[in-house]
Amino acid sequence: MQFERFDLLARVVEGHARSQYDLSSSDMPATRLSECGGLSDRSLAESHVGGGEELRTELAQLYGGRPDDYIVTAGASEANFAVYAALLSPGDRVLVERPTYQPLEAIPRGLGAAVGSLVRLEEEGFRMTADRALAAVPEDLRILVLTNLNNPTGAALAASEVRALAGLAAERESFLFIDETFRELAPDGVTQSLGGLNDRAIVTSTLSKFYGAGGLRIGWIRAAAPVRSRIQSVLDYLSATPSAVSEPIAIALLRNRPKILARNRGLMEQGQKVFREWATAEPDLTWHEPVAHLTFPGIGGNTARLADLLLRDYGTFIAPGESFGLPGHFRLNVGIGAEKLLEGLTRVSKARAALRGC
Questions:
Q1: Per-residue pLDDT tens for 19-39?
Q2: Are residues 200 and 131 part of one domain?
């Protein structure tokens, strides 16, 4: 068992440390503890395997199903690892969308699985069609892996498409695994949580992105009972229980969702306008309207080289497409605030001009 270097994480850590303008980290602006309100007193020795009932009840009320359908984890990173570790044996076949978030490919490879790619086409706006996905699924597939909204492009999955894939997974006794880390950032009606479609569908998510609360390390898994049992057996050897400190803060955040939603929508609307104006004027750029806060513009060149130049000479961080399996693009978060976004994009334009002049 050997896991490859997490290139994106290394770039993000360096980018945070060295940049004034971070254009590519994927979370919304941080929520402060003082904004949570309503925190209850509780024993710091008290924790619950799988998460406390109060937190799981909040999740079920917001995202559907019953409290027992959920396992609370130390972030989506632990959730995703536990899903793979619970379901895979060496040699199993896994199909992962591309472009994608690197760990979704790297973890199953590290566990000895045979990993293939299901390509999202740029000319289709990086959307995933059920017909193309169904045609690509081999008979002996163990897990089909998607993100919704897609990381890094921000493209949404239609519920009708995913239902078809969930049906195929049930027929073939494989699994459909969807990381919904960014789903809540989509406008109302664009996409919905796809947990509970059938016993072969598994979803994971987190408080890190929509709520700007990555430091809490609170994520979750929604899955059918037999799958949950296998996943919990893995988690028993990892965090075992969620943080007793983080759980009450997570409950307060979930109850404060309308206020956070209004903040996020305002930031995204402003940022989408800034990006649209910049992209329209920027030469040799391919781009799509962001559904929410992420988009994946193409520059037709070496984005790793551009990223290095931006960080070194312009104090600006971008995550290059090379980190997501599709060079020539970079992940952009338009929800960071209009002023910061505009200045960062101005620096991208200057760096691109400098490269063209080389």
A1: 999 999 999 998 887 777 766
A2: yes
